[in-house]
Amino acid sequence: MASSYQYQGVGRDRQKDLLAQWYGRLENAPRTGTPVAYLFISGNIGELLRSFGFELLFPEVNALQCGVKKVAGDFILKAEDLGYSSDVCGYVKNDIGLATSGNRGPFGALPKPDLLVCTYSGCNTYIKWFEALAELYGARVFMLDVPYRRTGGEQRQEDVEYVVKQLEQLAQVCAEMTGRPYDPDRLSRSLEYSRQAEELWVKILHSAKHRPSPFDAFFEAVFFMAPIYVLRGLPECVDYYRAAWEEIEERRVHHLGPVSEERFRVVLEGPPPWPHFRNFWELFKRWGVCCVASTYSKVGGIWDFGLRHDPARPLESLAEYAINCYTNWNWELRRQMLERYVADYQADALVIHSVKSCRSFSMGQADVREYFTKERSLPTLFVESDLADPRYFGEAQIRNRIDAFFEALEHRRLTAPRAGA
Amino acid sequence: MKNSWEEARSWDELVERCTPLATDVTLPSVAAWKAANPQRKVVGCFPVYTPQELIAAAGALPVSLFGGRGQVEIDHADSRIQSFVCSIARSTLELGLAGQWKHVDGMVVPSICDVARNLLGVWQRNFPDRFTFYLHLPQNVSAVGVAYYRGELERLRQRLAELTGALASDKQLHDAIRLFNRNRALLGELYQRRALRPEQWPTAELYVFAGAGNVLPREDHNRLLEKALALGETRPRPKRDSVRVVVRGAFCEQPPLELLRVLEEAGCAVVDDDLQIGARFFLEPVAEDGDPLTALAEAYLQRTVLTPVNTPGQRSRNDGLLATVEATAAHGVIFASPKFCEPALYDSVLLKQALEKRGTPFTEFEYEEKMTVFESIRMQTETFVESILFFSEK
């Protein structure tokens, strides 16, 4: 971006700084005596854990960092040497490989867990993952059982109450481990920061409704969303989204965007292929494709339909949040969300990136393609690779599919007015 | 055809007559049950475990569905489920789309894995008018989990009433619990006899007796099992020089029957397995008095076998397997799991490590529904058996 703009690049630069500081705190945790809790992004109730003084570590984030930095392949092979199948989740294997190789990645050294909080929110693999880590580290596991959101109707109150009761159990465990009592005021203050960050993040997500969109809600969102997932509840997270929002606003005013000329607006379903992230993005960029909405950016929380953490209802709103993460929604809700995105963001097409590693995400995506192409007449592109394992990315094949798809879309666009005339 | 197993006079005849009950995925006996009184409802249950007592108490027939067992070509389902998903999910949808299960009025899918959970969503879109129920099996084993699961069972009871037209009473639930306790006791007896004298109770044959229970009303299945227990001792079989093995991994999608025969032909005497485990899920009888739903909830969360899909709580899955190996005096363990079954594949890594520490030999292979050639598994198993017979201290 040109240097004459005041805010361009801050979203990316400050994200890197914040994550580096956070990883620095993690590296120092054993020295500073800070207790460390491992947990997952989906349904992460980090504010509660931080209120007891825990520093948080997210193995999924480590896995994607290893993927982007192109070191995941070796860790995955290490785990396969230990007996893990080639057919199970690459994130898990990356983490096992990392943990059994000295626990040092591109982000520095990682501390051992004092507590493993399995926020089972839409992913059964989470349970298996932490069972393996519990065995490896001999650490205590707390199983937070988050029921699946299975109806399109109202949020079921019994599910919320069930999660709240478990959060009370977790608070008791944290109090026992840290010697600190549960402090609802401290938690509420943190949730107020969460709420503010969520407001700003939603504004950024909604900015993609503009034409041209100032923001790519998939390829850029995956960077912009990191602070709200790993540092939510902290004041620096709110500061980050204020700065990021300024960047997006400046782009909108000056008609800057992720692609020089926006030719196609698409909704993207599925996670990115981290080890080939740049290449994958380029394959779309060359067609002037902007992702105006994505589901991957909702794995750690769906806030764009109004849900917020609420300082006045701390545990209830944490429970509602955990239940309403993307892969914890059933297919009816997921399809409705995609339909809404297509309409609200005026998308030309749906792109599905189906990954083998995450069946929670991908099982059923082919049926979604069937639905959108046959019942909604929406052009839908379906490509397959993996989110962590570099071996599953067939660039030539994926390029062919993408090129053929957008060529056809362009052809349709050129011929459609004449056909209608 | 109707209840032809009742006329069987020998063990072999009983095996022959039960085999189609256990393996015909078009469920002809269920169609016959339904045809006899079309008002009655059939509720299909996806593996691994569904509290079928509730379905029976509501006057419906619970049917355990185990996918296509290699008998269906995946045609319609291919466009809806990707190729890296296990066979049972794909063939279950295929059987529905191909119209083979028109006599199945509803479907209960428990929260066993990501694939099962999402399969229900696909099923619901393709069959919007059919009864479906997603059953959340809690992962929190404390009293909080019991209370939540009791509520979940109450919701299932209410929903079933919408399907059948009548709410199952506590008395009907108690009767169903008694009936199912009897069923589990009979299955337990069959398994126990096999563990003591595996040559007398071949696994592939036991499998069809147990499997008949997937489609028969439990009253009928109990009589069948009583008959099998009586006939089993009437046919003396020679003692074989086999190694005693525990089989793990086949708790959901089932291996081809031929594969079980191959294991035995290769020199294994199966002394414990997790085949069709849902019917034998409880370690103790469910309480037959008090609140029936609380009894089922407590039984599920506190007194079940441990499979890769239910949470161990304070118990240890590794210790569970080691205890079984000990109790059955097994020489080794065979991990046989379906291709792409993540829960089984994750657990086997930890279980193998525990076995290694104990010095118990194991081998591992994967199967698929459509598998028809078993030579490499036969060879692998023979090598495994020989390694135990010739090199192990056992």
Overall form of chain B: globular
User: How many DSSP-defined strands of chain A?
Assistant: 10
Helical stretch count of chain B? Answer: 14
Based on CA inertia axes, which overall geometry of chain A fits?
globular
Give the class of chain B from helix and strand content and strand pairing: alpha/beta
Q: Enumerate the strands of the largest sheet of chain A in spatial order, edge to edge or round the barrel.
A: 2-1-5-6
Major β-sheet profile of chain A? 4 strands, parallel
Low-pLDDT sequence parts of chain A:
none
Oligomer: heterodimer
Q: Classify the secondary structure makeup of chain A into a structural class.
A: alpha/beta
> What Rg of chain B, in angstroms, do the CA atoms define?
20 Å
How much of the sequence of chain A is in beta strands?
Answer: 5-15%
Order of helix and strand elements from N to C terminus of chain B: HHEHEHEHEHHHHEHEHHEHEH
Which chains make the largest contact?
Answer: A-B, 49 and 47 residues
How would you state the average pLDDT of chain B, rounded? 95
Polypeptide structure, described:
The complex is a heterodimer of chains A (421) and B (394). The model of chain A has no long low-confidence stretch (mean pLDDT 95). Chain A has helices spanning 10-32, 46-50, 59-68, 72-81, 90-99, 125-137, 157-178, 184-206, 221-224, 226-230, 235-253, 277-285, 314-323, 331-344, 359-362, 365-375, 395-420, and strands spanning 36-39, 55-57, 104-105, 108-109, 115-120, 140-145, 264-269, 289-294, 349-355, 380-385. The two termini of chain A are 42 Å apart. Chain A has 421 residues and is of the alpha/beta class. The radius of gyration of chain A is 21 Å and the shape is globular. Chain A has 17 helices and ten strands. In chain A, the strands form three sheets. Chain A has a four-stranded parallel sheet, sandwiched between helices. In chain A, strands 8-7-9-10 form a four-stranded parallel sheet, sandwiched between helices. In chain A, strands 3-4 form a two-stranded antiparallel ribbon. Chain A has one domain. In chain A, strand 7, helix 12 (277-285) and strand 8 form a beta-alpha-beta unit. Chain B has 394 residues and is of the alpha/beta class. Chain B is 48% helix and 11% strand. In chain B, strands 2-1-3-4 form a four-stranded parallel sheet, sandwiched between helices. In chain B, strand 5 (243-248), helix 10 and strand 6 (268-273) form a beta-alpha-beta unit. The radius of gyration of chain B is 20 Å and the shape is globular. The interface between A and B is large, with 49 and 47 residues.
